[in-house]
Each structure stands twice: as C-alpha cells, then as structure tokens.
Amino acid sequence: MKSKVIRDRFLKFFKDKNHSIIQSSNLIPVDDPTVLLTTAGVQQIMPFFSGLKEPPSKRLVSCQKCFRTTDIDNVGLTPKHLTFFEMLGNFSVGDYFKKKAIYWAWEFLTEELKIDSNKLWVTVFEGDEEISADDEAIAMWKEVGVSPDKIYKFGKADNFWGPPGEKGPCGPCSEIHFDRGEQYGCQKDKCGPNCEQCDRFIEVWNLVFTQYNFNGKKYDLLPQKNIDTGMGLERLIAIMQNVESVFDTDLYNEIIKEIERLSNKKFGISSDLDRSFRITADHLKGATFLISDGVFPSNEGRGYVLRRIIRRAITNGKSLGIYDEFITSVSDVVINTMKTIYPELKKNREYILDILETEEKKFSNTLKQGIGILEDNIKHLKKEKKSVIPGEVAFKLYDTYGFPIDLTKDIAKKHNLNIDLKAFSTYLEQQKQRARSVRGFLIETKKL
Ligand code: GLY
C-alpha cells in the first residue's frame, strides 16, 4: 500500500465518522511563542481545547507537518527516528472521549489496515501522587481484545502528554506499539514496549486523553474532556510496507536513490554509510520544508536548527564521498515527491533552492577555513611529537566553523591522531549551559 493511499485512508476513515479534515498548519507555530517549531498535530487545536477559539467542528482530523529538534541526534541510529515527519491525528473538542478514541484506533489498524492484532501492544498511565492510574483505559483495551500480558503501565515520562509549551492542555495517554518480532529484540526478560535496549517495539500511535490544563504549577480539570491523537505516518508506512526502517518506505525511495546517484554508493550495504544516507535524507527533507514554511538559516532559534541540519547533511554527504555541492539536487527530489500533498513546495521551489545553494556555498568556505586551522594545528602537534588534538581546538572548530566532531575525528584518524574528547565534552557542556540560560524561554515538548 503506497504512502498516499495510507494517508488518504486515515483521513477518510475519520471523515466517515463525522470529522472535518483540517489542513496542516505551518512548521512555525502560530499561537504559542514558547514553542520553537510545530511538533504535533494538536498544536493548532490547543486554542479549541482551552476554549479560546471556536472549532470549525467538534471532531477534527489532520495530517500535520512536524519537526522535532530533540531527535536530531537520534536520526540515523535507529530505524524509526526522523526530525521532519507527518503526524496523523484525530481530535475531539469536548465531544467523544476515551472509549471511542480507543475503539476507533483499534478498528483503523486492525480492520481498515488489517494489521495483525497479535502484533499490537499497548501502554497506559500508571498514576502518580497528582493524577490517578488509568484503569479505565486498561479495561477498554481488554474489551477490544488486547490480552492483559500485552498491556504495560508507565509513568509521566512515557504516558502523559503535553503541554507542548510551558502551560496549557495535557493529559494521560495510551500508546499502541507494533512488535516487529523477536529477531529484532534484545532477548532480555524485561523487553517490551519502550525497551531501551532494542528496536523490537515501535511506538505507532499515541492517544491522549486531554482533560487537564497545566498552569505552570498544577493540573486543573478542563471544562470539557478532549481527545488528541498522534500517529507517525512514516512509521505506519514502514509497518504496512513491511520494510526495515522508515527510510526504506516509498516516502524516501527517490530521495535515497538520488543520494546513491550523487555518491556512487549503495544504501543498505554498510551500517556506517547507511547512517550518513539516513541523516542526509532526513535533514534535507526537513530543511526543504522548514525553508518553505519561512524559516531562514541563522545563528539562533529556529534559524540555527535549520543551519545545523543543513551543515550536518553536507558533512554526512562528504562522509559518503560527495565532494561537490549537492544539496539542491536532493531537495529538488524532496519537492518533486511531496508537492502534490504539499503544493507550497512547488510554489516556493526557486526560493528553497536559492537559500540552500547560498547556505552550502557559505558553509564550504567556512569548512575550508576550518580545515586550514586544523591542518596548521596538526603540523604543530607532529612537530612537537604529540598525538592528541586538544579539546579546545576541536571545540573551536565545532563552535566557530560548524565542524561536527565526527568530521574532526575523521581527519584526526587520517593523521593517526586522537582528540581529547573529555575536554571537548566539557567545553560543549559549558556552551550548552550558556545557551540554556539564553534560550530558556524556547521550550520543546516535554514528552516526544
Ligand atoms: N499529541 C500527541 C502526540 O504527539 O503524540
């Protein structure tokens, strides 16, 4: 089943249950200055939940463009993490609540898409001193047919969602996980949903029972009970297309093929190269959408996120052996594969490619300067018969010249040198602390 069919079937399934389809909002959140980027479909629904705005309908459904900066470092390392992704979601603004949300989610996965129900496990909120355990959800999951040994309980970190910013609607949640099979497991006794040792279980759908408002200190009941759900489209497609990772789905095939053409290397042969393929594909897809939605590369806030992913894509392209400028041709493939769903990409094509071209040229010059500095340092070290590049030098290259530490490591390795990574980490931590105090007001979602 192609991605377009799956996206359409989700929207139609809920349309047939009287939901109004709403368009994805921009990646730059409209109503919440405390949030850097749009990380969930519910963000544009929040004013309806809090009663600040009148919804067009009490039942809504969408496919939302999302970007999660907290996953930048996970991309490439796992089969499921992406920075840019599409989130499918159905919402109830004071209309149906837990029972219908659970029953319909189960019906969509097991009857509409015919996913084997034996492969689905669920998690529920175990309760804490402020909010009671969700025994109701446990009973409902049993009613739809989930066997009790496939129902796991977790605390706030896993089974409580929101608010996306500092304050606002939130609630306990219940997640549906897909079991890819024992062959992907760590074989440990405790292996199950949210296992930190392996990728056997993939979280597919999160159902949030949004009944609280967090005012910064405590949770008050909202005047009405709401439903917010979020399902990663790419993960669902990977399950439906029975492929190894989200990068093997039809949403990424053309992008990966273009990177294969440019690098003259094959995807799926070596895990090191695959990591670079995945990072390059993910980051250039994300950069294309961010620019289209009005983010401009800069040294702070969302502009810095954009600059960082463009630079990571370029250096990972270099790890694949792409030495010429290349990012506009990958971005063009992203535009071509996604433009029928997101027509703004077609409209903004020239603008997107111009920004990427300028940014790549700028970074190439910076890289050249950085490489000059590193080579001078290496000459000096060799003269003094030293074999360790000081952490301060690696940090300066990272901080001032945008060198990812992996690139410095690669160059050091070619010269049989090591890097003082401990000192590098100390400088990095100090910088993060400085950045945290400056950017403290820009808060990402608490639970992603
Ligand atoms: N708002 C639900 C989710 O992002 O999982």
Can you give keywords for this protein?
single chain, alpha/beta, 2 domains, binds glycine
Mind explaining what this structure looks like?
The protein is of the alpha/beta class and 448 residues long. It has 2 domains: 3-240, 2-Layer Sandwich (BirA Bifunctional Protein, domain 2), CATH 3.30.930; 252-372, no CATH class. 44% of the residues lie in helices and 17% in strands. It is built from 15 helices and 11 strands. The protein has helices at residues 3-15, 46-49, 98-112, 135-144, 156-159, 233-240, 253-263, 271-292, 301-319, 327-338, 344-347, 349-383, 391-401, 405-414, 421-438; strands spanning 20-22, 59-67, 84-92, 120-125, 151-154, 160-161, 168-179, 201-214, 219-232, 388-389, 418-419. The strands form 2 sheets. Strands 1, 2, 3, 4, 5, 6, 7, 8 and 9 form a 9-stranded mixed β-sheet that branches. Strands 10-11 form a two-stranded parallel ribbon. A hairpin with a 6-residue loop joins β6 and β7. α8 (271-292) packs across α10 (327-338). The two termini are 27 Å apart. Bound molecules: glycine.
